[in-house]
Amino acid sequence: MRAPLLAQLALAQAAVGDRRRALASLSEVARLQYEMSGRPTSGRCVPGSSRAALACRKGRTLALLGDRTAAIAALRASLEQRSATA
Question: How far apart are CA 75 and CA 27, in angstroms?
């Protein structure tokens, strides 16, 4: 549950120009995703917690920070992780 909140925090930090904290928050999101990757899920959907949603927030954050190449890569990853009908 922390990953979506940290991703939103990173976006807010980038919006106010706090690059260091935004990147630290994104690093924490990545760490949490890695830790949770092998654990079973409860089957309940937590809004904004999908890998696609987190990748989208990462892309938006990186775009605000001016890292266009990384932002495009994250947004492409977000699209690839979504179903064709989503």
Answer: 17
- The position carrying tokens 């989208």 is 56
Query: Are the CB atoms for 53 and 4 separated by under 8 Å?
Result: yes
| Contact predicate 58/7, CB 8 Å | yes
Is the separation of the CB atoms in 77 and 27 below 8 Å?
Answer: no
Report the Cα–Cα distance between both ends of the chain, in Å, rounded.
Answer: 22
Looking at the chain, list the stretches that DSSP marks H as alpha helix, in order from N- to C-terminal side: 2-15, 19-36, 51-64, 68-80
Print pLDDT tens along the chain (86 aa): 788 999 999 999 999 999 999 999 999 999 998 887 766 444 433 444 588 889 999 999 999 999 999 999 999 999 998 876 55
Q: Give the Cα separation of 79 and 86 in Å (integer).
A: 10
Residue 48 has what DSSP assignment?
T
